[in-house]
Amino acid sequence: MTEASILFFRACLALLAMPIYLLSFLGIWEPFCKKIFFPFFLEKFSAIHERKTKKQKQELFRNLPDFTSRSGELKLLEIGTGCGANFQFYPPGCKVTCTDINPNFKQGLSRSMNKNQHVHYERFLVAAGEDLHQVPSGSVDAVICTLVLCSVHNVDGTLKEVLRVLRPGGAFYFLEHVAADRSSWKYFWQQICYPTWKLVFDGCCLTREIWKNLEQANFSELKLQHISVALPWTPIQPHIIGYAVK
């Protein structure tokens, strides 16, 4: 598993994906990816991922009602809402503010909202995880983020914003794919796929050790578990799941 072999296999993969690299060089791929390809892909992939992680998500979000504020309301903020794959797991009557840096998920998001009318949708904000200035400090009871921290520009900056918008005692829920063990063949495969994967899938990074960012953030409590999601022939099987309390 030498650096030379990683570079060799990366070059082979780049050769296979040459049309996409060429479109990227011409400035065509990124707008096409954000507007058409990635929203289409994410809706299809989310359906598969949801089937594979349904039990884990049900368990993860089971205690969401415990973070209801004294007013009796449960205010949620979701970072990187995408097509709304998590709505089905939210408790009835909760108020959700949806955010995403990409405004092109409208069709999939509308379908998910129509299926999940037990949730009250407050608003949709076009915003990056690192910049949630439209959300007042200490204004939400829980923040949800699934399969998003792999593609934010700054994980620590996003976690700082999470802590800012959460009220004291509020919770941050996460389910993210992460880097495999550095001595494993999975990590070797992740390193090979990294540049092409990031280009094709709108900035998704395969080798982030996000559990370290969470451990170093200023949460008072962290419940984190490493799991493997059955996604054969992909480099995104290793995941972390859990929640952290402000």
From TrEMBL:
The keyword Cell inner membrane does not apply. Signal peptide: none annotated. Keywords: Membrane, Transmembrane, Transmembrane helix. Gene3D superfamilies: Vaccinia Virus protein VP39. It comes from the Eukaryota. InterPro entries: Methyltransf_11, SAM-dependent_MTases_sf, Thiol_S-MT. Coiled coil: none annotated. One of its GO terms (molecular function) is S-adenosylmethionine-dependent methyltransferase activity. The chain crosses the membrane at residues 7-29. It comes from Thalassarche chlororhynchos (Atlantic yellow-nosed albatross). This is MET7A protein. Residues 77-174 form the Methyltransferase type domain.
